[in-house]
Amino acid sequence: MPETKDRQKFVYDFTEGNKDLKDLLGGKGANLAEMTNLGLPVPPGFTITTEACKVYLESGEAPAALRDEVSAHLDALEQRMGKKLGQADDPLLVSVRSGAKFSMPGMMDTVLNIGLSDRSVTGLAAQAGNERFAWDSYRRLIQMFGKTVLGVDGDLFEEAIEEAKQAKGVRVDVDLDAGDLRRLVERFKDIVAKETGRDFPQDPREQMDLAIRAVFDSWNGERAKLYRRQERIPGDLGTAVNICSMVFGNLGPDSGTGVAFTRDPASGHQGVYGDYLQNAQGEDVVAGIRNTVPLAELEQLDKASYDQLMQIMETLETHYKDLCDIEFTIERGKLWMLQTRVGKRTAGAAFRIATQLVDQGLIDEAEALQRVTGAQLAQLMFPRFDESAAGKDGSRKIGRGIAASPGAAVGKAVFDSYTAVKWSRSGEKVILIRRETNPDDLNGMIAAEGILTSRGGKTSHAAVVARGMGKTCVCGAEELEVDTKRRCLTTADGTVVEEGDVISIDGSSGKVYLGEVPVVPSPVVEYFEGRVDPAADDADELVKAVHRIMSYADGERRLRVRANADNAEDAARARRFGAQGIGLCRTEHMFLGERRELVERLILADTDEERGSALEALLPLQKGDFVELFEAMDGLPVTVRLLDPPLHEFLPDITELSVRVALAEARRDANENDLRLLQAVHRLHEQNPMLGLRGVRLGLVIPGLFTMQVRAIAEAAAERIAAGGDPRAEIMIPLVGTVQELEIVREDAEQVIDEVRRATGTELDLALGTMIELPRAALTAGQIAEAAEFFSFGTNDLTQTVWGFSRDDVEASFFTAYLEKGIFGVSPFETIDRDGVGSLVRNAVQAGRATRPDLKLGVCGEHGGDPESVHFFHEVGLDYVSCSPFRIPVARLEAGRAAAASAGSDSR
Predict the structure, then answer these.
(1) Which of 867, 871, 896 is nearest to 883 (CA)?
(2) Which label site among 73, 83, 497, 747 has the fewest CB atoms less than 10 Å from its CB?
């Protein structure tokens, strides 16, 4: 076994930890310790640390000291409980459960009832006075151990249970008696022997040691790795292992197990929420194999336990100052707490709960900002079903289940994870339909638009995972009979929905429709559009919560938020969404459509006169565009990027044009203009256009192009000033790599601006700056700042040039493999690459401001609307981010969260 540093402690009793030790004890272990410290009824036990797991994963062996430490803690547990692990006449049984720092529901392994054997099962029966309970516990152990520790196909056990029920003529497990279960145990042991070549282990310590090793191994299981990639959880954290003395919910009708939430995780409303199952163990609830009853019904079944649970839930929520997710078991009328954690919730619930906790005085506004995310806000902006249109256009309601995770999802019905992934990769939108989901369905759940199950409740695997991912989910639609083998579902009226049929599921109401239901804008988008007054008495409760959180964010943030917008319509919408200007107006979009012909004339011009004529025709059109834009953004900055793309993008496709010319020549009907265009296309053809004649290079090579655009901007500004407006134009020169390029273009631009100033008698204050989108520009930012009044980081192209990627090529070819292999946690085109691209941005900020302390700094790549990237831009001291209009609220929120998290500090 590998040597480890002296005196390192690998095992902690539940009495030794606390909730702040999640890195070491994992979330489950830290919270079990915290509940123990609070004096809550927690079964005694101990936790093996994540450090032990890391040693095992790195070396393939457990730390040398671990076995002795586990033995010492097991001895102490046995003394406390007054019985030994697996003792024949009165066995101590334990659970072995995973528990990483971040919740990964169902993605790693758990084994219950460790310590049962052919000898101790009779002792358990005698002590419990319940033979059926003992054999039920033993079959559960063999089933879980066989599947998770020994790698036996779990379906083999499930098929054996189904056969036993059919032979008995019953539908549910609880109707099998002790004799049935004893025979099932023998059947399970035969399955283990046949599938593994070894007998089920009878030594209780061997059972425990193998289970611990299986939990360690499950950290690198495929489903765990997939979940970590999906949730961006680091792969080097490892998992803790919790060994806890067993308490039993399957002792009879006075026992049971459940999951509770201190508030509704779907809506955020306060009340009693959760699921309970009589005569069951914990995995029965989460797996959704048996349909549960609402937690409120426990009051009629066991009022004393119910009242104690309500008191504990209040204690935990007040202590954690958040929604808590609780697992509990009742053993013959005694309540035991098995787990608590800050609960996963839907986006709407997150906003409601944050504001509720502020009103209760449990948290302040700055903390409320940390309880929500931009990704959650984006979910709330998605469309929802138009209930008034449901049932029309061929759609009709076919069932209803539990609204487990909100949203409107439409797609083709599929009945297994493999098909969901396959069809999704082909561009199809799918709804994954299962009786119940399990961790092996994770791939399909990620690929699907939504998830529908016929079993389970709000705490089932499907519901918990869907809420965590922000996926629409309807659970427990009992009236729908799902047949995964025949790949269909049958409704209560006999309608059969086959694989490939389109269905719609509403995760907010639980309704299921056959066909496609139309969607309408969400109330949150209506609020941002200004069509809903959050102060009105009848305003949606969610809208009020979003408004309050956005007000907190706007009050906290230092970063301003601008929009990427190229026309007055987009600019006006961006302003309604809270934009504080335009950070990127792409003038190339103004040259499309009918104006493309004028650009062709410019490209084909052989003489200065022809070129001047083409530019003269474009000038008033460009000016008109800018007048509309400056009017829409009156009083706010508008950064106009001069023409950036290669000129060939304005010409016909080379293949299409070649065919047209060849056909015309074959008909002896050649078109002179097409011939000239084809020659121009060949002349301008480049092997790598992204690094060719574009950006500032166009302005230097094609006389008059940039000066025409500058004149249009200046004349538009002068016209708006004459009309009483307040235009604040900023002229941005793209793709600068050296200060000399910028100096030449700047000198020409200043001359044009001065000409317009004299011609109109208008004082013009137009800032001139550049995009930093090449590594050389970032490395020489100090020099470039001498000729620039502002920098805007073009992080799309900067990412391409830093990584040596052609985005259009690599995303389709090998990015998926890179993500699967863990080379990327997330695409560097989605979230800023802090170590590479981010390092250049940071250096450019420092060098630019060293040269020009008042240098204005922003970003206009797609990263400007990415939540994680916004935090980085706050940290390095940018003045603003710019993004598409729809992402402006997200950027506003994240800018506020970044400021609150850093207490307003930044690199400046």
Answers:
(1) 867
(2) 747
Report how far Cα 566 is from the mean position of its chain's Cα atoms. Answer: 29
Model confidence at 675, pLDDT cuts 50, 70, 90, reads confident
Q: Per-residue pLDDT tens for 710-724? A: 999 999 999 999 999
Element (H, E) at 497: strand 496-498
The one-letter amino acid code at 32 reads L
Helix (H) or strand (E) holding 377: helix 374-380
Report yes or no: 591 and 601 within 8 Å, Cβ to Cβ. Answer: no
Q: Grade residue 827 by pLDDT with cuts at 50, 70 and 90.
A: confident
- Which phi and psi angles does 456 have, rounded to 5°? 90, 165
520 CB-near residues (< 8 Å, 6+ apart) = 383, 384, 385, 386
168's tokens: 């008995």
> pLDDT (tens digit, 9 = 90+) per residue, 601-635?
877 777 888 888 889 999 999 999 999 999 999 99
Distance CA 339, CA 312 (A): 12
Q: Give a three-class secondary structure readout of 264-289.
A: CCCCCCEEEEEEEEECCCHHHHHHCC
Segment 406-424 shows an average pLDDT of 93
- The CA angle 892-896-902, to the nearest 5 degrees, is 145
pLDDT at 657: 67
Give CA separation, 266 vs 64, 407, 688, 779, in Å: 46, 11, 50, 49
Among this protein's residues, is 860 annotated catalytic? yes
| pLDDT tens column, 194-252 | 999 999 999 999 999 999 999 999 998 888 888 887 777 888 899 999 999 999 998 88
CA distances (Å), 543 to each of 365, 578, 805, 850, in order?
17, 16, 42, 44
pLDDT of residue 83: 95
Confidence (pLDDT) at 812: 63
Strand 519-520 relative to strand 384-385, pairing: antiparallel
- Choice among 73, 461, 648, 874 that is catalytic: 461
The neighbour count for residue 290, using CB atoms within 10 Å, is: 17
Residue-level pLDDT at 684: 66
Return the minimum-mean-pLDDT range out of 69-73, 412-416, 438-442, 694-698. Answer: 438-442
Segment 107-132 shows an average pLDDT of 92
Q: Which of 475, 860, 871, 874 is catalytic?
A: 860
Helix and strand totals (H; E) in the chain: 36, 31
- Quickly tell me which residue has 């997200």 as its tokens: 890
Please state, in angstroms and rounded to a whole number, the distance separating the CA atoms of residues 699 and 747: 12
3-class DSSP assignment, residue 699: helix
Q: Which residue has the tokens 């969901």?
A: 420
- Taking 3-state DSSP, the helix, strand and coil percentages for the chain, each rounded to the nearest 5, stand at 50, 15, 35
Instruction: Name, in order, each residue with C-beta under 8 angstroms of 535's C-beta and a sequence gap of 6 or more.
Output: none
